[in-house]
Here is the input.
Amino acid sequence: MKQLLLVFLGGGIGSSLRYYVGKYLNSSETGIPYGTFAANIVGSFIIGIILGLALKNNSLSQNTILFLATGFCGGFTTFSTFAYENHIFLKTGDFMSFALYTCGSFVVGFAAVFLGMWLVKFL
Here is the structure.
């Protein structure tokens, strides 16, 4: 039960923060979801750091990993919003934004995870 509560609390904090990031960074004028992109990339970087620390020296407890990685990062990042925003690009025929957003999110997201894990090696 304690582990479920940790995931719940971390997810709530992450989701609330993602809401504010999206609110202030998503562009209603251009329709480009900068906030979702930023949340997914920053969340990927953070989870890279968390998991890198966990692998490096076992300094993080399982409960800390559940709170930060599963809870916070799980709530902060969002695949469902990413998928919906891509649906909107396709529906409106904006294939260039769809391609750039999709490819950029995957490439930069993976790079952010790897960068976070790589940086931990030098801490």
In short: The chain has five helices and no strands. Residues 95-120 form the longest helix (26 residues). Residues 2-20+36-120 form one domain.
